[in-house]
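Sample 3 of the quickstart, ligand adenosine-5'-triphosphate:
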Amino acid sequence: MSQVAAATAPEETAPEEPAPEETAPEEEVPAVAVVPDVALAETTAPAEPTAPAEDAAPTESSAQAQAAPAATQPNATTDVSRETSIDPGGTPLAYELADETRRRIALEEAVLPRPAQTRVLTISNQKGGVGKTTTAVNLAAALARSGARVLVIDLDPQGNASTALGVDHRSEKKSVYEVLVSDLPLAEVIQPSTEHDDLDCVPATIHLAGAEIELVSLVAREQRLRRALDAHLASMDEPYHYVFIDCPPSLGLLTINAFVAAREVLIPIQCEYYALEGLSQLLSNIELIEKHLNPELRLSTILLTMYDSRTNLAQQVAQEVRDHFPTQTLETIIPRSVRVSEAPSYGQSVISYDFASSGSLSYREAAAEIARRGAAKTEESN
Ligand SMILES: Nc1ncnc2c1ncn2[C@@H]1O[C@H](COP(=O)(O)OP(=O)(O)OP(=O)(O)O)[C@@H](O)[C@H]1O
Ligand SMILES: [Mg+2]
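Result:
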């Protein structure tokens, strides 16, 4: 009920303030992205712009307002402007609440298409801390909740995806390391995630740290994960709809194994300075793999992460990424959100940790977009 009330709030109050309506018509919004953002920052945090404890609230909500129109509108500039506009009939907060409500309803009503064949996506970026693991875990959780069967393969010796999915990855456990180095079948290391019945995980243990070196002398060192995964999928009566491979922050043999096992690459890009640095090296590696080892591989998806709508820099990075990768970049943007960063310490995705949070909402939207794009692509090629 309160959400509905929030949704209608701006309209109800609109007639009371005719003057701003005249001076700030909605049409002016797309024109400038930067100036209204300053206005919002001032409105939401006038005295202490850094206030860390409350950081999440304005950042999440304003970034959501940014991401929200993105789901329905074609370009990012419009989104930025809408996020920063002040509804003539309400406060920015009222606008954001209404917008979140609208997006939640749209997600609840949506039925996501399921792929006819397993989609294997490698989540990769040799830059550290850009949100690879967070993206793998939360997309997987969102898709499992939507009714898909999902597997996450943790290919990072840090084992962060295993932790976030509530899966035991102590050193004595069998893991993806034994699959790669000792040819252990994938079925013997897969564990159910506490996150959802339809979500499984291949954990990574610390042993994987040595795998890069051990793999060098092994036969078919680049194809080891591919073979194990293909064999497992072929043996399943009901194969997974999605497999996400969480890569380490490097371009070594582990990442090469992930590229060879996958059909699609998803690159998370943090909306920060240096975000695009190193990207050309990553792209040329993908090209090399496509040419020599896996002709099906393509860069299908780019996801902008940790977006802070209060900074011009984040807006500029987002725009630059969209300019370079107009078809691959998802409309949905993941906001910087305290809830997202807290969730792993509870062995949860943000979706189960705080379903109503804006981080959860954004990852569910990103998952929906990935599902729809995949279905559209299949239709195109038929
Ligand atoms: N949207 C977000 N808002 C706030 N914090 C986030 C967000 N996404 C990720 N983080 C935090 O940023 C840090 C890095 O994220 P994550 O571990 O997903 O990156 P990564 O690319 O997998 O890192 P690595 O390269 O070390 O594997 C983590 O502490 C995570 O909780
Ligand atoms: Mg990681």
